[in-house]
Amino acid sequence: MASLLRVATWGLCPWRGYCSKGTQGALSDGFVAALKAVVGPPHVSMAAAVREQHGRDESMHRCQPPDAVVWPQNVDQVCRLAALCYCQGVPIIPFGTGTGLEGGVCAVQGGVCINLTHMDRIVELNPEDFSVVVEPGVTHKALNTHLRDSGLWFPVDPGADASLCGMAATGASGTNAVRYGTMRENVLNLEVVLPDGRLLHTAGPGRHFRKSAAGYNLTGLFVGSEGTLGLITATTLRLHPAPEATVVATCAFPSVQAAVDSTVHILQAAVPVARIEFLDDVMMDACNRHNKLNCSVAPTLFLEFHGSEQALAEQLRQAEEITQHNGAFHFFWAKEAEERSRLWTVRHNAWYAVLALRPGCKGYSTDVCVPISRLPEILVRTKEDLKASGLTGAIVGHVGDGNFHCILLVDPEDPEELHRVGAFAQQLGRQALALHGTCTGEHGIGLGKQQLLQEEVGAVGVETMRQLKAMLDPRGLMNPGKVL
Alpha-carbon distance 101 to 99, whole Å? Predict the structure, then answer.
C-alpha cells in the first residue's frame, strides 16, 4: 500500500479512484485504502450519517453527500490527500464548521470531503505586529478567547462561530465590518494547498506585512474563492487593539425610512460607529417572543461605539441627536458588559427567533449590498415587496456598509412556496444590481447565485474567472459546481 500511495502522490495514475464502471458514489477499495494510509483508518469515514452531515450547510440547498469524509491532522496530510484525489480524478470538497448559507459544501459530483477541523492550532501570535497565524479548526470565538489577556482582538464576527479559514474562503464579514472591515481587509497571508497537492503561501512563507506592491495579489484571489481554487490550511490575520471602553445603544423608529435615514446621516457625520444593525418590526416581534423581552415592535437600530470614555460620550451625543431628528424614540444605551452582551444576544439570535415563528419550516437568507446612498430606497421597497409576496419573513442588516438580509421562512415540502422564495431572492438580487450594488455582500455565490454573478460582472468578468480557475484547477476537481 505504501508503494501504491507513493505512485499516486507522484502523479502516476495506474488505477482509478472511482469504481471500474466510473459510477459516481462508489470509491474503489484501493483508493479508500490509500486515504487511510495517509490519515489513518480512524480518520476516514464512509458512514451514511457522517457523509450526510458533511453534505449540507445552513442553506436551503438539498443535502448532497460526499463519497467519503477524511480528517487530516496536518498540512502534509492535506497535500498528500489533494495529490491523491487529483491524480485519480476524484472531486475535493473542503469542510470547516458547515455554517455556510449558499450550499458551498454540497458534493454535487460526489468525491472526498476534507474536514479540516482537527487542525486547530493557533500557530503564531505576533502582538507587536498585530498579527496571528491560525489553522482551519480555530473559530473566531476561540481566537478571541485566546487573545483575551493580550489587549488585542479579531473583530470580524459573522454571527455563527465559524472557522476563520472558512471565513477567509467565503469572504465573510458581519456586524463589525463598518469600522474594521471584512475578511478581505483583515487577511494578510494564506497557506493554500493547491488542487494537485502543491503548497502555496500567497504572500510568501512566514510574511505578515501590512502592505506590499510585489506582484499580483494572490491573497486577494483566494479570499472569497469558496474552496474552488484550493484548500486554505492556515491564515495570517490582522489583529486590532481592544477598545478601551464600549457602549451599546438601541433606538426604535416610526418607519423603515426613518431608521435607514439615521444610518446614512450617522455615517455622513463621520461618527466612528463600530456596529450599526437594523432590525425591522417583524424581527423585533420575533426577538421579543424568542428572548422573552418587551422591546418596541418597530424598526430598530442597534449601535455600538468603541473608544475612550470622553470619545464615547461625544459619539453617543451625536448619535442620539441624529436619531431623534429622524423621529427615534426609546433611545437606550448600556455600558456594563452584562447588559451589552444581553442586547447583542438578541441580534445574534435573530435567525433562531425568526425560525420560531413557523416551527417545522426552514429559513432562507438573502444577502444583498448596495451603496449607502441607495440603502433607504432598496430597504423600503424590499419591505413592500415582502408584504406583497405573502411570504413570512423579516429584515435584518449590517446597514452601516449597505448590507442587509431578508430571512424568509419556507416549508421545504411545498414546491410552490419554494418557488416563490427563489423568485423573491432573484428579484431582490436584480434590484440590488440595478442600484449598482452586489447580489451577495458576505454569503458568497455557492450554488444559487451563479446567474446573478454573470449579470453582476458581465461576460468578460466571468470568462476571466473561468480562465483563472482552469489555470489553477485544470481538471475541475476543487469544489465543483460552485461559483462558476
Answer: 7
Is 126 in contact with 152 (CB distance < 8 Å)? no
Whole-number Å distance between alpha carbons of 335 and 246: 6
Percent helix, percent strand, percent coil in the chain, to nearest 5: 40, 20, 40
**Contact (CB, 8 A) for 81 and 40:** no
Cβ count near 47 (within 10 Å): 10
Q: Is the pLDDT of residue 178 over 70?
A: yes
Burial class of 213 by CB neighbour count within 10 A (0 to 12, 13 to 18, 19+): exposed
Residue 484, SS3 per DSSP = coil
- Residue 406 C-alpha cell reads as 431578508
Count of C-beta atoms within a 10 Å radius of residue 329: 12
Instruction: Report whether pLDDT(239) > 50.
Output: yes
Q: For residue 329, give the 3-state DSSP assignment.
A: strand
Cα 50 to chain center, whole Å? 23
Mean pLDDT of 288-310: 93
CA distance 139 to 160: 9
DSSP state string for 15-51:
S-SB-TT--TT-B-HHHHHHHHHHH-GGGEE--HHHH
Rg (the chain; Cα; Å): 23
The tens digit of pLDDT for each residue in 360-413 reads: 898 999 999 999 889 999 999 999 999 999 999 999 999 999 999 999 999 989
CB count, 10 Å around CB of 391? 18
Using a pLDDT cut of 90, give the percent of the chain over it: 83
Distance linking the first and last C-alpha atoms of the chain: 37
